[in-house]
Design a protein that fits this description.
Blueprint: H1 2-28, H2 36-63, H3 71-80, H4 84-90, E1 99-100, H5 101-107, E2 136-145, H6 154-173, E3 181-183, H7 186-195, H8 198-209, E4 213-215, H9 230-247, E5 254-257, H10 265-274, E6 278-281, H11 286-294, E7 299-303, E8 314-318, H12 334-337, H13 366-381, E9 388-396, H14 403-420, E10 427-431, H15 434-445, E11 458-460, E12 467-469, E13 472-473, H16 482-512, H17 521-535, H18 547-576, E14 590-592, E15 594-595, E16 604-605, E17 607-608, E18 613-619, E19 626-634, E20 639-642, E21 648-649, E22 652-657, E23 663-676, E24 681-688, E25 697-698, E26 700-704, E27 717-721, E28 727-731, E29 735-740, E30 746-751, E31 757-768, E32 784-785, E33 792-797, E34 801-808, E35 811-818, E36 827-834, E37 842-850, E38 858-863, E39 867-872, E40 884-886, E41 889-893, E42 897-903, E43 907-910, E44 916-924, E45 943-953, H19 972-982, E46 986-990, E47 1002-1003, E48 1015-1024, E49 1031-1041, E50 1061-1063, E51 1071-1078, E52 1085-1090, E53 1096-1098, E54 1104-1112
Helix pairs in contact: 1-2, 1-3, 6-7, 9-17, 13-14, 16-17, 16-18, 17-18
Bound molecules: zinc ion.
EC number: 3.2.1.-
Coiled coil: 36-63
Signal peptide: 1-28
Length: 1113
């Protein structure tokens, strides 16, 4: 009772703090008309708000589960809380940029006129005398673009090309100090390193250290930016940077990303926090390139829309022309530039499609050739602010032929010699690295105090959706090969869970001297980091590789999923055992409840055979405590579930069906709610009962459009139901949802806090196409509805969950509503099992039509699961251009309501009409789309999808974010739903030798059992030591403080948001021996603190932080 009162007063205090800050915020806004009267009015309003917030807070506290001992944490919050979390989302960010991508889309006509030699631009003229007074500096940057899997597998490319490329480059640079080269893909470099002789390695290092060879970006791969989640982006960058640090000993400082099909500010932010100085991108919509070029804005400081200052600015260079190949990089005329690709000389195996071949440079032609090339460089320089020109010299897998470096370097050296020997030409030309270019640029422009070039514009927004020509929008790859996009996320959640569990368990093992623990586990983690990293490649997760390459990726992913499950199970055993020494027993083991037979098969739930009592263990990889329904498959229907104290847990048992007519008699689904602390483990036991009343309650099944016998299984109510006008209704404490009684499809949904029913009609439709391919979405007209007349479906209702299982053409559609008071009950869960293998040239979508009035067809989609971007559907661009990536969520809103569709995996999304959104589910395509892949997409699989539909009412008096603001934030509930969808609770079965009493009741490494709601543990990843695959005693702890919108309430969260400060050690039950601030990927270390000092951290909303921590057990 005392604790309740303390909680309540703490809550009121919190409200007062939030509100006071809002007053200050509002008063600080410049408003010349603001009279004293108006201010008074505002204060009255704010008082009303206090009341409202108070009541919502009371609700939140009521949702707290008795027995959760987090007073310690909350009293901390009480002392230091302020409203930065709420105030952050309320303030008007995103308007300080000079170039706002959302506004630019309004301005650009997207008319695509023929620009002449530079087809998508214009005829660039160089006024005479333009170079009289300044020297044009040209950096020719030799590079080779190596895809870790595309037409060939990663390994095949390495053997056939990449291996030779690196060797050739090293051999040609050594002894030629003026020759330069850049290399991006660490995955290939690490293979070369393993094969290289020690003298080759030494040469490579020497070239890097003397500046001839630059490692750019230094990621494991050049990652895709549309479908990737920021977790996997960071993870693959850490893997690359750790490799570079351990093997070469340098820190990449500029980024080179020439091939991903569109770019997000998330990547720019990550690069900034890694400590990069500048970045380069290339695949930007041709009309956007032209617009920026006309204003000399192809170089800018890229700023996060959520940045309230200038702290996230990073210098970005956009390549101006069609491609990164040599014809499109020396200047505007590809017919000319192609003649300076000396690999296209006779014997090189390739030629110029413009039919003017290159000529070897000789004393006879050098003047004419040099002047021709100089003209292109001069024209190119007119598109930029400085007199420094970047001229990349390379293409896909170039320099593999040992003759190529000789051809390119020697011919260019002759051109350089000529041009540099004529002072009247005012040109200084040389080979350079990307850093050489940016350094020269900054030298000529001068630098501001923050190191940025003087006079450069700031840009806010993203570069989606990419088009390279005509109406060829690259929005197909947002969905292509969805089976593997799903498998990617499965590995992400398992991998992250395993990293964290391993990092904690290895500290405990170390303390308890359990030598057996670490053997080979870390090897599995490193392998999984690399397999997951490899798939983030822009032909991996994008679904744009050849069939056999997709299989190679799939095998890697599925192998690592299995390995990560073993790591998790092993850590669970160690952490849950009361007596750690029994860890060495092989009979005592936990097995994951799910397994996969092969790279293209669906996960299968393991059957828990119950003869007497079995232990089931749960692991929550999120840092917040959660309460959710879990599902276990058991061999008998008469069971009960006991918590660790031996108390019965409410449970439901469902039938499993062999086919339409017959339920299984040896497999049943048991559902029950469980609570698991943050990063914690808990357990239950499942026991067979004699059929008495304390067992799990059987659900009822109603069957539509098919007749079955009513008494199929003893104890279960199965009946035939009739189609009719009334709805099938599902309801819990938060939601009421209506379904059509003839089709089983969702019709309406209401949030019970207001009771206002909203239309939400869910339908399946398909686009026909004759030209879509793996990259491009090119529909023939609008989508046609998939006819659903009398579908077979079941409605299953029980005390803990209601669901509809409907069998539609190409989709098994399963909608569930949980009835716990946990976060899983806050949204409607949609599971689709999509199978379009019997179609051809079809793109299947799911559309939800609502009466939400989102004006101007504006809505929000996420970028890499990290931030939300406003989208506006436009008529001047084609349908496919209005598709955007949805790696984790999208929402529609009007002044009263927000509806969010959360997804477990990346797919394409659009909102073509007001109140509507649609997601693309799968694509089956008979043709190639002429981007080099050379095949259609016909390797479709049965693909699972998990969506959650969340309805949130805007708290009265809170206002929706204004239309000019390019960003919005999910609520804390929205964040929690997303995490729940993406990180399901891990379920493990103890072998029959595991006795409940030998295990702890629960375990969590967190002191209060939960992080604050807005603090996400991105990863806790054991740092790699010298020599491959050796762990150190350091853990990289990556934290993300969410930006969140306070306007939508917090029920039913079991946590509180962060105050302005947090003491790091107070979060953990583990000891902290040493703590070091570091950059995102640990390249640049900051302050260090020892074991005795307190570690107060001030974490800003939206920001990511990495710390190197030495935990003790
Ligand atoms: Zn590529």
């Amino acid at each position: 009772m005392k604790r309740r009162i303390l909680l309540f007063s703490a809550g009121v205090f919190l409200v007062m703090f939030f509100t006071m800050h809002m007053v200050v915020d509002q008063m600080a806004q410049p408003d010349t008309d603001n009279t004293i009267d108006e201010t008074k009015k505002k204060l009255v309003k704010l008082n009303e708000e206090i009341d409202q917030l108070k009541s919502s807070l009371t609700k939140t506290q009521n949702a707290l589960v008795p027995g959760l001992d987090n007073t310690n944490y909350k009293s901390k919050a009480l002392v230091s809380v302020d409203s930065t979390g709420c105030g952050f989302a309320q303030s008007e960010a995103g308007l300080s940029a000079d170039i706002r991508m959302l506004d630019i889309y309004k301005i650009i006509p997207f008319d695509n006129p023929d620009g002449g030699a530079w087809k998508q631009g214009w005829d660039i003229s160089v006024p005479s005398g333009a170079f009289d007074n300044e020297i044009l500096q040209v950096f020719v940057v030799p590079h080779s673009h190596n895809d870790p899997g595309w037409i060939k597998t990663f390994q095949r490319y390495y053997m056939d090309q990449s291996k030779h490329i690196i060797s050739n480059v090293v051999a040609n640079l050594i002894g030629n100090p003026n020759r330069k080269f850049i290399w991006a893909e660490i995955s290939f470099l690490s293979l070369w390193w393993n094969d290289a002789s020690s003298s080759q390695r030494e040469s490579f290092k020497r070239l890097v250290k003397n500046g001839q060879l630059e490692i750019v970006t230094g990621g494991w791969v050049m990652n895709d930016e549309a479908n990737t989640n920021y977790y996997a982006m960071i993870d693959q960058m850490i893997e690359g940077h750790e490799w570079v640090r351990l093997n070469i000993g340098i820190k990449p400082r500029v980024s080179w990303s020439i091939d991903p099909f569109g770019y997000t500010p998330t990547m720019a932010y990550l690069l900034k926090r890694m400590g990069m100085d500048a970045m380069l991108i290339q695949r930007v919509h041709y009309s956007v390139k032209k617009y920026l070029a006309q204003k000399k804005q192809l170089e800018f400081m890229w700023r996060q829309n959520w940045d309230h200052g200038t702290d996230t600015d990073i210098l970005c260079h956009v390549m101006p022309f069609y491609s990164y190949d040599i014809p499109h990089t020396c200047g505007p005329d590809p017919a000319v530039c192609c003649q300076f690709d000396f690999q296209r000389l006779p014997g090189g195996g390739i030629w110029c499609p413009w039919n003017i071949p290159p000529q070897p440079i000789s004393p006879r032609n050098v003047q004419q050739r040099a002047m021709m090339l100089l003209e292109q460089y001069r024209k190119k320089s007119r598109l930029y602010r400085s007199n420094v020109v970047l001229a990349p010299l390379g293409d896909d897998f170039r320099y593999a032929d040992p003759q190529e470096p000789v051809r390119q370097f020697t011919n260019y050296e002759k051109l350089f010699q000529y041009l540099n020997s004529k002072p009247e030409l005012k040109v200084k030309i040389q080979f350079g690295t990307l850093s050489d270019y940016f350094n020269a640029l900054l030298k000529t422009t001068g630098k501001n105090d923050d190191g940025s070039p003087k006079g450069y514009p700031k840009l806010g927004g993203d570069f989606m959706t990419y088009a390279d020509r005509d109406e060829h929008y690259w929005s197909g790859y947002y969905t292509s090969r969805p089976f593997y996009k799903n498998l990617d996320r499965v590995l992400e959640t398992k991998h992250r869970a395993a990293e964290i569990a391993y990092s904690i368990a290895s500290r405990i093992a170390n303390q308890e001297k359990i030598a057996k623990f670490a053997t080979n586990q870390f090897n599995l983690l490193v392998k999984s980091r690399r397999n997951l990293g490899l798939f983030q490649h822009h032909d991996g997760i994008t679904g744009t590789a050849k069939d056999h390459v997709v299989v190679d990726y799939g095998n890697r992913l599925v192998q690592s999923v299995g390995n990560m499950q073993n790591v998790i199970a092993s850590a669970a055993k160690l952490l849950m055992l009361k007596h750690k020494e029994s860890y060495s027993s092989d009979e005592i083991r936990f097995d994951m409840d799910e397994s996969r037979a092969s790279h293209d098969s669906l996960p299968e739930k393991r059957l828990l055979s119950i003869s007497n009592t079995r232990v089931v263990v749960f692991y929550n990889s999120l840092a917040q405590k959660r309460k959710e329904l879990v599902s276990v498959h058991v061999s008998v229907p008469n069971v009960k579930v006991l918590d660790a104290d031996g108390n019965s847990i409410k449970c439901q048992v469902n039938l499993q069906w062999k086919n339409k007519n017959s339920p299984r008699d040896n497999k049943f689904e048991v559902l029950f709610p469980i609570e698991v602390l943050g990063l914690g483990f808990s357990r239950v036991t499942i026991q067979k009962t004699d059929g008495s009343s304390d067992g799990c309650k059987p659900s009822k099944t109603s069957i539509y459009h098919h007749k079955v016998k009513n008494d199929l299984v003893k104890g279960f109510d199965v009946r035939n139901a009739d189609c009719g006008k009334q709805y099938i209704t599902m309801e819990n404490q938060f939601i009421v949802a209506d379904f059509d009684r003839c089709t089983g499809l969702l019709q309406n949904i209401a949030d019970k806090s207001t009771g206002i029913k909203r239309t939400a009609e869910l339908r399946f439709l398909q686009y026909m196409t004759v030209s879509s391919g793996a990259y491009l979405f090119l529909p023939s007209g609008t989508a046609k509805e998939v006819l659903i007349q009398k579908p077979f479906f079941r409605h299953i209702s029980g005390i803990l969950r209601d669901e509809i299982q409907a069998f539609y053409p190409n989709v098994y559609h399963n909608i569930k509503l949980a009835n716990t008071n946990g976060i899983d009950s806050r949204s409607l869960h949609i599971h689709n099992l999509v199978d379009i293998r019997d179609t051809s040239n079809r793109e299947l979508i799911m559309r939800i039509s609502t009466n939400i009035r989102n004006t101007n067809r504006e809505y929000f989609t996420d970028l890499n699961g990290f931030q939300m971007q406003r989208r506006r559907t436009l008529d001047k661009i084609p349908l496919q251009a209005n598709y955007y990536p949805m790696p984790s969520m999208a929402f529609l809103q009007d002044p009263k309501l927000r509806m969010t569709l959360h997804t477990m995996q990346a797919c394409g999304v659009a909102s073509l009409k007001q109140g509507e959104f649609e997601v693309m589910l799968d694509r089956r395509l008979g043709q190639d789309d002429n981007r080099g892949l050379g095949q259609g997409v016909r390797d479709n699989k049965q693909t699972p999808y998990h969506f959650a539909l969340l309805l949130e009412n805007l708290t009265k008096k809170q206002t929706m974010v204004k239309s000019k603001i390019p960003i919005a934030y999910p609520s804390l509930v929205g964040h929690a739903v997303s995490q729940t969808v993406n990180h399901p609770i891990n379920i493990m079965f103890g072998t029959s030798e595991v006795i409940p009493d030998s295990l702890l009741k629960q375990y969590s490494p967190l002191k209060s059992g939960s992080f604050p709601c807005d603090l996400h543990l991105v990863t806790a990843r054991t740092v790699q030591g010298e020599g491959d695959s050796k762990p150190t005693d350091e853990t990289a702890v990556v934290l993300h403080r969410y930006g969140y919108d306070c306007g939508y309430g917090m029920t039913p969260l079991l946590c509180f948001p962060l105050g302005s400060k947090i003491e790091f050690k107070s979060l953990w039950n583990l000891g902290v021996r040493n703590f070091k601030e570091t950059s995102l990927t640990m390249m640049h270390d900051g302050n260090e603190r020892g074991g005795e000092e307190s570690i107060d951290l001030t974490l800003q909303p939206m920001e990511l932080y990495t710390y190197k921590v030495k935990f003790s057990g």
